[in-house]
Amino acid sequence: MSAYKDLKIAAWNANMQLKHDGLAIQTFGNVSAFDPTAGVFAIKPSGVPYAQMRPADMVVVDLDGRVVEGSLRPSSDTKTHAVLFRNIPNIRGVAHTHSTHAVAWAQAQRAIPLLGTTHADQFPAPVPVTPLLSDAAIQGDYEEETGKLILETLAALPGPHPEMILVGGHGPFTWGSTPMQAVQNSGVLEEIARMALLTMQINPNIAPLKATLVQKHFQRKHGKNAYYGQE
Q1: Which strand (E) or helix (H) includes residue 154?
Q2: Is the pTM for the entire model greater than 0.85?
Q3: Which of 105, 104, 70, 96 is nearest to 179 (CA)?
Q4: What pLDDT is recorded for position 37?
Q5: Which SS3 state, helix, strand or coil, does residue 114 take?
Q6: What CA–CA distance (Å, rounded) separates 11 from 214?
Q7: What is the pLDDT of residue 219?
Q8: 24 φ/ψ angles, rounded to the nearest 5 degrees
Q9: Long-range Cβ contacts of 160-165 (<8 Å, 24+ apart)
Q10: Residues of the chain whose pLDDT is less than 70?
């Protein structure tokens, strides 16, 4: 009996949700589930079709990316997940997708502008995009350097940090208080990206949403006196 059975099930469920939500094509994408007490996380095995994966296939690694349990090779993005778990407080899940519209913005190396209340409900600023990695970083420990670049980009933001980012030329990473929350954030990001693209096609001169409306929507959902949802 695995000591990490529940963690593996959590990771498997979140990966299955990623596929169910249409956020993962072929074998692309991955979600991890973190246990801070044990200092390990379970993550999707590399290159295994979603239809074939079972909870037991999830690979458990430590925060240095070393395999603790599992016979399969972990996701190629494992070291990026590890960097985020080591450095972003209180997160328990990380998701990475190659979803079409979010990737399009990442490939364009453009932050997603805040144009409407759907975006404001999630985060009160543009979704940031990292610069491209340097040649030295690409040729070095690529996945570790990707995580470091995400952290550097977040640290340079003037306001609160989002639970999502676009890695320039690559694609989106999201995180959350649970693995499923990370997947949900990936879904919201994809919709925000799609809506922004359509909006700018309809009106290329559209201005960012005005600040009062942004703050109203963000605060009613996330603020001290939030009243969205049920108690």
Answers
A1: helix 142-155
A2: yes
A3: 96
A4: 96
A5: coil
A6: 33
A7: 87
A8: -130, 125
A9: 160/123, 160/124, 160/125, 161/88, 162/122, 162/123, 162/125, 162/127, 162/128, 163/91, 163/123, 164/122, 164/123, 164/127, 164/188, 164/189, 165/127, 165/128, 165/129, 165/130
A10: none
The full DSSP string for 37-65 is: TTTEEEEPBTT--GGG--GGGPEEEETTS
Q: How many helices (H) and strands (E) does the chain have?
A: 8, 7
The residues assigned a catalytic role are 121, 228
User: Hey, which residues does 166 pair with through a beta bridge?
Assistant: 129, 172
Residues 6 or more apart in contact with residue 125 via CB below 8 angstroms: 114, 157, 159, 160, 162
- Residue 90 makes CB contacts below 8 A (sequence gap 6+) with 177
- Nearest alpha carbon to residue 151 among 137, 140, 139: 137
